[in-house]
Specification:
The chain is built from nine helices and eight strands. It is α/β, with parallel strands linked by helices and 278 residues long. It has a single domain, classed as Aminopeptidase, CATH 3.40.630. It has a six-stranded mixed β-sheet with strand order 2-1-5-8-6-7. Helix 6 crosses helix 8. It starts with a strand and ends in a 9-residue tail after the last helix.
Length: 278
């Protein structure tokens, strides 16, 4: 077993019956981090733990703060029905906050009308909160066993930015993006070792550009207490056909690269002895 937990919050494909969106399903699927949970099977063989969401991020996104939602996206005056104050970020402005309100890639409205506060609370209780509870349990259990835990928050990105991105439409993405919230979410060695391994394989890798890590990295990182979180974004063009969403001929190659990346972290993962679980 390794002191390593991975999670894939955006690869879910089980669309709830009450979604009630007005989107073309094929376009809606472009929001999915397709096959990401399958890319990391090698890490499981090495003793890591992995959690992946079954529900789609467009229904509710566990990688957003629960209050990252525009008041204008709710039925009039129903913001007062929520047990917290809404604090929307640029993600909500783009239609990709807690609940996606726009359809990728061009940003048409997701719903014919604003959502009821009760619908938001139902999604939080039925999907968002259970995902966070499950991830917290994985991390805490690993921490109790080893006295430290490393967390890789796993994602994929389209090869080019869409109209719903913080980048200009058409911007080409690198092969990998490592996000450590500007060096605050993990031991710098974790970022450095991932970067050095991936660049040594010939890949273009950036750090915190354009992705720094969002809620799941923020919420569960505490490097001062040996809780280290990093976000890893993988360019979909490396392993899949973005149009058909099918795995491409290099899928197995990327699986091997990611397994080797975990191997490369061994000196960091094994720097302290495991302790007996409390």
């Amino acid at each position: 077993m390794l002191p390593l937990v991975l999670d894939s919050p955006h690869s879910g494909t089980d669309y709830p019956a009450d979604f009630a969106h007005q989107a073309d399903p094929s376009r809606l699927r472009s929001a999915e981090d397709s096959h990401v949970h399958d890319l990391f099977t090698g890490a499981l063989d090495q003793g890591a733990v992995m959690l992946d969401a079954l529900f789609p991020r467009s229904y509710i996104d566990p990688n957003r703060a629960q209050n990252d939602f525009l008041p204008a996206s709710l039925v009039a005056a129903e913001a007062d029905h929520l047990p917290f104050q809404l604090e929307p970020t640029v993600k909500s402005d783009l239609g990709i906050g807690l609940i996606w309100m726009r359809v990728p890639p061009d940003g048409e409205p997701m719903y014919p009308q604003p959502l009821a506060a009760a619908a938001v609370l139902q999604r939080l209780a039925g999907y968002y909160q259970p995902y966070h509870a499950a991830l917290r349990e994985c991390l805490d259990r690993t921490y109790r066993t080893f006295g430290r835990v490393f967390h890789i928050n796993c994602h994929s990105m389209s090869n080019q930015a869409s109209a719903m991105s913080t980048q200009p439409k058409g911007t080409r993405r690198p092969d990998f993006v490592i996000g450590d919230r500007d060096g605050t979410s993990c031991d710098p060695l974790l970022t450095q070792m991932l970067y050095e391994f991936l660049t040594a394989q010939g890949y273009q890798v950036t750090i915190n550009d354009p992705y720094k890590g969002v809620e799941l990295v923020r919420a569960y990182s505490d490097p001062a207490h040996d809780r280290h979180s990093v976000q890893l974004e993988i360019n979909r063009q490396l392993y899949m056909d973005e149009s058909s969403r099918e795995k491409n001929s290099d899928f197995g190659k990327i699986q091997i690269v990611l397994k080797q990346a975990i191997d490369a972290l061994a000196p960091l993962l094994h720097t302290s002895d495991a302790k007996t679980a409390q």
